[in-house]
Specification:
alpha/beta; three-stranded mixed beta sheet
Amino acid sequence: MEGKLQPSEWVLVGGIFVFMASLFLIAKINVYRSSSFLEVHPAVSHVSCVVMVEGAVKNPGTFKVAPGTPLKKILRKCIPLPFADLKKINLEQRVESSMVLYIEKLLEIQVYIDGLSPERLELVVPAGSKVSDLKSRVVCNEELKKRMFKSCRILKDQEVLSVKKEGACGKCELSLISLTNINKFVLMDDFYVCHP
């Protein structure tokens, strides 16, 4: 009886066989599950784009960014100066390759004044001008100039200044305003000036 296995040995061999079969079955099930859950993604390129930013920014320099980065994210790092001309730049544009970005500085800004005439007045002034600098551009009585143009705040491009036609006194009379814009002298429509 040397060639025959004892019943306890058969139990051991059967248990090992069942254990191996269950491992094989679990592996097959996991392979099937993982193939149904895997999503295919294109290979990500580890190549970075070099963007050189110059001009009207606080932190000019060279920035390494991943392809597809929007320009607005790069400009946040550079911190554009107050009179940087960002109108010509598409901030949503994505970087696809290395590039040089030059940010121009505004030399002139447009300011609008509402309430002095039926139509909006447009002024072109040097960048960095203050509200009080408009005093020299408008010809009207001194009381109105003091009331309207006393602020020393710097004007922004495309800013709209609103002027009330009537003051708290309720006594208004018809006056004429003239506007000088660079080397032009333009006669504007009538408006009301409050007199105390």
